[in-house]
Amino acid sequence: MNTRLVRISLALCAAATVGGCTGVLAHKGAVVDPQLAASIQPGIDNKTSVEKLLGRPTFTGQFNANDWYYLSRDTKQIAFRNPRVREQTVLLVKFDQAGNVAAIQKSGKEYVAGLDPSSRKTPTLGRQRGFFEDLFGNIGTVGAPGLPSGQ
């Protein structure tokens, strides 16, 4: 009876541990319907019709307000790890000065960049000091010869 209880409790602990490692799927950004995006035609549609079809853009161009970007990203995160990009869509709608669609560009996950910092240390000039030197380094320096006194 006792070994049966131990086996059941171990099975429950294992199930809880495995259950904690399930992935969490998340969607961030615009929800762009591919059929609606394909129906936009340069020279025919304008800002008003694009806004009615796709909604307001995720952001506009920094250097050209006539560039509208619709960004959509699906990620998966397992337990406490960083989320990984599963799918990404960037739809760029360019307008001419009159507000008509001039061009449409679509890109995907190929532009996702993974950045790895070189290390966790910031390089500094000067003397390398350890933890204890930083902690006890000022003992005895108050009132030392050559330093201004506190009088």
Structure write-up:
The protein has 151 residues and is of the alpha+beta class. It has a domain at 23-111. The chain has helices at 2-19, 34-38, 47-54, 131-136; strands spanning 23-29, 59-60, 67-78, 84-95, 101-107. Strands 1, 2, 3, 4 and 5 form a 5-stranded antiparallel β-sheet that branches. The longest helix is centred in the N-terminal third of the chain and has 18 residues, at 2-19. It starts with a helix and ends in a 15-residue tail after the last helix. 7% of the residues are buried.
Strand content: 25-35%
- Terminal CA distance: 81 Å
Structural class: alpha+beta
| Unreliable sequence segments | none
Average pLDDT across residues? 84
Gyration radius from CA atoms, angstroms: 29 Å
Please give the share of residues in helix: 10-25%
The number of distinct helices, counting runs of at least 4 residues, comes to: 4
Order of helices and strands: HEHHEEEEH
- Shape type: flat
Largest sheet: 5 strands, antiparallel
Number of strands: 5
Domain Outer membrane protein assembly factor BamE: 29-104
InterPro entries: BamE (IPR026592), BamE-like (IPR037873), BamE_dom (IPR007450)
Pfam families: BamE (PF04355)
Keywords: Cell outer membrane, Membrane, Signal
Feature tags:
Outer membrane protein assembly factor BamE; alpha+beta; 151 residues; cell outer membrane; signal; single chain; 4 helices; BamE_dom; BamE-like; five-stranded antiparallel sheet
